[in-house]
Specification:
seven-stranded mixed beta sheet; 39% helix; alpha/beta; Aspartate Aminotransferase, domain 2; three-stranded antiparallel beta sheet; 12 strands; Aspartate Aminotransferase, domain 1
């Protein structure tokens, strides 16, 4: 049996979603851009899914553009705005964004854009006043993630969006880690653009969407046909779209997950060489990011894998990169702890019995690595005293 604790990287496809995909694949295989009746039936299914997703976030159907996932959506949001608003050369984001935002900003910097990377506090929260002070007449967009993918911090999105509205600046949020876990009303929250990825909510990989508020000046950056309201060319991932809409019906059982997560928190607190990174107050309910003194997170991850336990050393998009986490550096985690960090993210399948098994194996693995490490936690305690 595998104990899967990496649900921020990806989630299992729910059985109800698999059933829906299987049924749909047999009957609706026509290209939705064709004009014969079976193709029009497929087109109608896409539009039904679009309308369902729009209702879920209180948007209009024509404001939902299907993409391959959040990385494309994030690129689309920033580059599409840049193409459509060439006189606005300033962007504001945070220092702890997902690489798909940070690297898009780096690309735009090479094209003459100026980017301000707002610092965060020890909990990973951006300072709203810092954003307010940085907004200029030529600011194109403020892009702040809804929930951080490594430490689970929930950012003050509604307050930031309100500032942007008053300043007549576009506001975009990468909502990948918060979608379905937190209520989202794009109209009430004054969100102009929102990115989402299906494989984080029990749908398959390769499908997501970008919400674009009506009236936002944006251009597509993938050329081709007229698909997706002429904003995103390419034959639609019909099966993925149907699966994404179905996944909205899956119960995440958030209260149960939070209870199990908190049960693990109390166990982690008994470990003398461990710290929990990020806010416990403003934190998504299924996330725990833990650092252990003087050891390597990659080694810990591999030892746990031998016991069929899956955890991450940070963002799945960066887990093959052995550099220090930019998120943990931004919140000023001690370097002796940064390298020994793991991200633990739960779903409703994880029980307290699973946590007991995991915690026992975690203790064994940490002790083994600590004995091998040249850096001793007891030496650090003596130095601090």
């Amino acid at each position: 049996m595998v104990i899967y604790l990496d649900n921020s990287a990806t989630t299992r496809i729910d059985n109800s979603v698999i059933d829906e995909m299987t049924k749909f694949a047999k009957d609706y295989y026509a290209n939705p851009s064709s004009l014969y009746s079976s193709a029009l039936e497929t087109r109608n299914k896409i539009e039904d899914a679009r309308a369902k997703i729009a209702r879920f976030i209180n948007a209009e159907p024509e404001e939902i553009i299907f993409t391959s996932g959040a990385t494309e959506s994030n690129n689309f949001a920033l580059k599409g705005l840049a193409l459509a608003n060439p006189t606005k050369k300033h962007i504001i984001t945070s220092a702890i964004e997902h690489p798909s935002i940070l690297n898009t900003c780096k690309t735009l910097e090479k094209l003459g854009y100026e980017v301000d990377y707002i610092k965060v506090d020890h909990d990973g929260l951006v300072n709203i006043n810092d954003i307010k002070k940085k907004i200029r007449d030529d600011t194109l967009v403020v892009s702040i993630m809804f929930v951080n993918n490594e430490i689970g911090t929930i950012e003050p999105i509604e307050e930031i969006a309100d500032i942007c509205k008053k300043k007549d600046v576009y506001f975009h949020t990468d909502a990948v880690q918060g979608f379905k876990k937190l209520p989202i009303d794009v109209k009430k929250m004054n969100i102009d653009l929102l990115s989402m990825s299906g494989h984080k909510i029990n749908a398959p990989k390769g499908i997501g969407f970008l919400y674009i508020k009506g009236g936002v000046r944006i251009k597509r950056f993938i050329d081709g046909g007229e698909q997706e309201l002429r904003l995103r060319a390419g034959t639609e991932n019909v099966l993925g779209i149907i699966a994404l809409a179905k996944a909205l019906d899956v119960d995440l059982e958030s209260d149960k997950v939070k209870d199990v997560r908190n049960y693990l928190v109390e166990k982690i607190k008994t470990m003398k060489n461990a710290i929990i990174n990020g806010s416990m107050k403003n934190r998504i309910y299924n996330n725990l990011n833990v650092s252990f003194y003087g050891i390597e997170g990659e080694g810990l991850m591999l030892l746990l894998d031998k016991d069929n336990i899956c955890v991450s050393t940070g963002s799945a998009c960066s887990s093959r990169n052995l550099e220090e986490s930019h998120v943990l550096k931004a919140i000023n985690v001690d370097p002796m702890y940064i390298h020994g960090s793991v991200r633990i993210t739960l779903d409703k399948e994880i029980s307290k019995d699973d946590i007991n098994f995991f915690f026992n194996k975690l203790n064994i693995a940490v002790q083994k690595l600590s004995q091998m490490s040249p850096f001793k936690f007891e030496d650090e305690k003596t130095k601090n005293n």
